[in-house]
Amino acid sequence: MGVTVLQPYPLPEGKSGAHIIDHLGKRLLSLGATHAGQFLVDCETFISTPQHGTPTRAVHVLHDSEFPASTFSIIDNGTGKQVALVADAIFDLLMLKMTSTFTSKKQTKIESRGARFEYGDFVIKLGSVTMMEHFKGILIEIEYRPCITLSYCWEMIREMLQGFLGINVAKEYPTYFTTQTIMNAMGQQQLHAKQNDLYEPMDTVKQYLEHFTNYRKHVQLHGGLGSSGLSVNGPVLMPSTVVGVGMGRS
Amino acid sequence: MDKLNLTLTAVKNLRSNVRQCFEHLADGTDGEGVEESRNKFVHDFQDRFGAINSQLREVEQLINGLQVPPTAYHLGNTTFLAQETSQDRQALYPQLVNSYKWIDKVHDHSFLAFNNLNQNTLRRSYNYCSQKRQRLPFSSFNNDPDHIDKLLSEINHPPHTSYNVFRPFGSNAVAIVTISNVLKAAIVFKGVLIEWVTIKGYDETLEHDDLWAESRYEVFRKVQEHAHSAMLHFFSPTLPDLAVKSYVTWLNSHIKLFLEPCKRCNKYIANGLPPTWRDLRTLEPFHEECRNS
């Protein structure tokens, strides 16, 4: 378990996602990486049924094939405060029992899947993000397993990313690591830079949630702008702009 | 199964009876030729013969009562007994030739290795020079524990490094060095002489009962290789304390293992690894490939 960074890859106009992923995979192989199976990260969101006096809360339930025995869940009460929980895989069945309080938003089920590569101690995953079978963009996960503190190995990871993606990656730490809020001893929220903390699997999952939320938000925007309320399923080429939004953040 | 057992017992009884009968016949009479004993002998034989007959019938009945087994019995290794024994049909010969070749090779190589090792004395603990030059033998390998404790406490280590000394092998010490959040190293001492170094990642376990397992990460396996060569480099039988001190200083330079680019190529990654080599004098980081070019 080492530091993991997510990097959205901007989709050039006129190219399909599968083509780009194929291309990147070939680059990695010629670099000397070995193909090591597939991966899948999925996210399902449950919304609490509104009751008087309590704001609606969302529970995001995520699975990561790198941690096959665990289910990750994050409760989000909408004010930026998040409660994270790691449970056994059987947690899914528990959620099914709680349909009276939490209802699943099926149409926002989003996942990233694709090939997994190993290069030295790096693990690189080329994921294509799909929501309701519609392609949304390319999300690249890179993990450096021996190191557990981002500030130690960020330059290495950055060099590796720039090397095989051929794009410029900003020198600053990814936003996830710089904009975390934690509760201090007085119960107040304060900004806390995470780059010197020990990395945990939950950090990977939270990063995925952050990126998935971005992809979803964009869809909602498009839904509002489009003439029909259900224009979620746009043409395949549209996501290029989606990734643009993601890029701007990191 | 019970029936089969009964049958087997019956066959056994039959065999032993037949054997007894033949033994009886072979013993014969006592040779006196007395009519009485001869009669007794014949009578005995008839009795035994009758017993054999009845047992034979019994065995036949039991055998008829047996059912053909639905599946083959699992007989374990004994099944091999009845297998093909013709030599041509077992590919033994090529295997035999191969193993002969291997033994020949092993013999050759071990002979060469023996000669080589005899020429280059790799034993560090027991000093040869001392015998030749009529000096006192060096005490680097049988120091008292207090000295090691003192030595390790004297090493002025930076705040991010912690030492944990314990003695699982009697008087010889093992020091577990944790360098920041980067790596853990176990240094096995023999006296003040460093015998072995194991390098592992910060998130791996390095316990006193598991000092010899390699790290699961390629980078730390490489660092361990370099740590061993550095261990030989810093070895000095005349100043064992200084050797340990300079070695630990060298080891501490790994705190920036992932942080510093290679001094020669200014890159972080080569062949999927960060600069794993630290120069022995300047402590500057290099890739393994860049260090001699």
From TrEMBL, chain A:
Keyword Calcium attached: no
Record's keyword terms, sorted: Activator, Nucleus, Transcription, Transcription regulation
GO molecular function, one term: transcription coactivator activity
Residues of the signal peptide: none
One cellular component (GO) term of this entry: mediator complex
Main location: nucleus
GO BP terms in the entry: regulation of transcription by RNA polymerase II
Pfam families noted in UniProt: Med20
Keyword S-adenosyl-L-methionine: no
Superkingdom to which the source organism belongs: Eukaryota
Entry-linked InterPro entries: Mediator_Med20 (IPR013921)
Localization in the cell: Nucleus
Function, as annotated: Component of the Mediator complex, a coactivator involved in the regulated transcription of nearly all RNA polymerase II-dependent genes. Mediator functions as a bridge to convey information from gene-specific regulatory proteins to the basal RNA polymerase II transcription machinery. Mediator is recruited to promoters by direct interactions with regulatory proteins and serves as a scaffold for the assembly of a functional preinitiation complex with RNA polymerase II and the general transcription factors.
Oligomer and partners: Component of the Mediator complex.
Identification of the protein by name: Mediator of RNA polymerase II transcription subunit 20
Source organism: Drosophila grimshawi (Hawaiian fruit fly)
Gene designation: Dgri\GH12797
UniProtKB/TrEMBL annotation, chain B:
One term of GO molecular function: transcription coactivator activity
Keyword terms: Nucleus, Transcription, Transcription regulation
One Pfam family here: Med27
InterPro entries to which the protein is assigned, alphabetical: Mediator_Med27
Localization in the cell: Nucleus
Cellular component per GO, a single term: mediator complex
Single biological process term from Gene Ontology: regulation of transcription by RNA polymerase II
Main location class: nucleus
Protein family (similarity comment): Belongs to the Mediator complex subunit 27 family.
Record protein name field: GH18376
Source organism of this protein record: Drosophila grimshawi
